[in-house]
């Protein structure tokens, strides 16, 4: 059975870059890696509804924190069997966002912290009720809000199909979300967390070594 590792961070933190670096190290060492990114906009109707809501195309649905939280969770529930299958056939399964994203963004929108009602609700929905696979570890990319915002804006300019949504353009939300992520990491919420400096070059080999040691221990 492979390891399930989740990469978290605010928009523009560098999650895709980290995932690629870790993939390169594991494959160089003879291992196999599978990757998924949530929301799965191209594969799941719930994620497609999320995208429409984030761009203001579903009336007031985007304003409902719990309504959006359910859609995010249903996207992951629909992918749960695929994740389990990937874990049976690969040494490492990397997820770009997972349950913690739902907890962090929803809590930030409600101006709650990591100990708040919404974070507990997400656990009860996604873990207890939906029975989603629980990660072996989280990797949190810590990046100042202004750096993440510039990266997200640059990505929007460079990628024709990557217009920023309502969450990504809300600087206050991004700062509050980063604070919730820090709280989740401090509590090792759902699984152990490792915080990485997203403003400097990440030592991908050291991260893979640490993940292997954590699982072995």
Structure, explained:
With 217 residues, the chain is of the alpha/beta class. It has a single domain, classed as Rossmann fold, CATH 3.40.50. The protein is 53% helix and 12% strand. The protein is built from 8 helices and 5 strands. Strands 2-3-1-4-5 form a 5-stranded parallel beta sheet, with helices on both faces. The longest helix has 25 residues, at 65-89. The radius of gyration is 16 Å and the shape is globular. The two termini are 16 Å apart. The model has no long low-confidence stretch (mean pLDDT 90).
Give a brief outline of the structure:
This protein is of the alpha/beta class. It contains eight helices and five strands; from the N terminus they run E-H-E-H-H-E-H-H-E-H-H-E-H. A five-stranded parallel sheet has the order 2-3-1-4-5, with helices on both faces.
């Amino acid at each position: 059975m492979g390891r399930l590792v989740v990469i978290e961070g605010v928009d523009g933190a560098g999650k895709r870059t980290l995932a690629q670096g870790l993939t390169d190290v594991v494959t160089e060492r003879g291992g196999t890696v599978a990757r998924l990114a949530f929301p799965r906009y191209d594969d799941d109707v719930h994620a497609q509804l999320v995208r429409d809501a984030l761009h203001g195309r579903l009336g007031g649905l985007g304003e409902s924190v719990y309504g959006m939280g359910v859609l995010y969770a249903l996207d992951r529930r629909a992918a749960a069997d695929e994740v389990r299958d990937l874990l049976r056939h690969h040494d490492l399964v990397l997820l770009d966002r997972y349950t913690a994203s739902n907890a962090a963004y929803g809590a930030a929108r409600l101006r709650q912290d990591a100990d708040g009602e919404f974070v507990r609700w997400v656990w009860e929905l996604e873990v207890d009720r939906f029975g989603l696979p629980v990660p072996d570890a989280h990797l949190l990319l810590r990046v100042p809000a202004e750096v993440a915002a510039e990266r997200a804006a640059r990505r929007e300019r460079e990628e024709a199909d990557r217009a920023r949504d309502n969450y990504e353009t809300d600087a206050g939300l991004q700062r509050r979300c980063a604070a919730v992520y820090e709280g989740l990491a401090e509590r090792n919420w759902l699984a152990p967390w490792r915080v990485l400096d997203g403003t400097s070059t990440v030592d991908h080999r050291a991260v893979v070594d640490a993940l292997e040691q954590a699982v072995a221990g």
